Amino acid sequence: APQVLGLVVWALIAATTYHLHAEYGWVMFVSIFFWIATLLLFMTYLLQLQLKFYAVPWPLVLLIFNAVATVLYITAFVTCAVAVHPTSWRQWDYNRRAAASFFSCLVMITYGVSTFFSFRAWKGLGSNAATSQVTDHA
Fold first, then answer.
1. Chain-centre distance of CA 93, in angstroms?
2. Which phi and psi angles does 34 have, rounded to 5°?
3. Where are the domains of the chain?
4. What is the mean pLDDT of residues 102-118?
5. Global pTM?
6. In whole angstroms, what is the distance from residue 118 CA to residue 62 CA?
7. CB atoms < 10 A from the CB of 105, how many?
8. Residue pair 122/59 in contact by the 8 Å Cβ criterion
9. In this predicted model, what pLDDT tens digit does every residue of 24-36 receive, in sequence order?
10. pLDDT given at position 97
11. Angle of helix 91-123 relative to helix 23-46, nearest 10 degrees?
């Protein structure tokens, strides 16, 4: 979900005259960087490459990644929302920037939820009844 929403933020900002406003450069950087990073992380799990790098503490890596993404998307959301001016000289720029603010808020929330679940996985709080039965008797 963050990949799709992040791509929407990226596309909405890119469709405006973002180069005239420095604050949208930050929003573009955050959305592009985390879109690519999330895609690479997704491909790592899809291809099960994490099994080849067994020395890497993947639950901790996911927790740190999601926490950093949440914090940086908070700054991108606030920057994008503050920079939207209803008196823009081009109405479609206002609409796209307002929509980008909304979607950056959604991305921020999805990364925040992912951080919560990554924290639970890192602490081992996400076990279900079947796995606890196996570990109790092993």
1. 24
2. -75, -25
3. 1-47, 53-137
4. 93
5. 0.80
6. 6
7. 19
8. yes
9. 888 889 999 999 9
10. 85
11. 40
64, pLDDT greater than 60: yes
What are the contacts of 45-54 at 24+ separation with CB within 8 A?
Answer: none
Nearest-angstrom CA–CA distance, 28 and 60: 27
How far is 102 from 98, CA to CA, in rounded Å? 6
* Span 43-54, pLDDT tens digits: 998 999 888 888
State the pLDDT confidence band at 87, using cuts at 50, 70 and 90.
low
Cβ count near 80 (within 10 Å): 28
The answer to whether 35 and 111 have CB atoms below 8 angstroms apart is no
Nearest to 93 by CA among 85, 104, 102: 85
- Residues near 97 by beta carbon (within 8 Å), at least 6 away in sequence: 12, 13, 16, 24, 80, 83, 84, 88
Per this entry, what is the length of the chain? Answer: 138
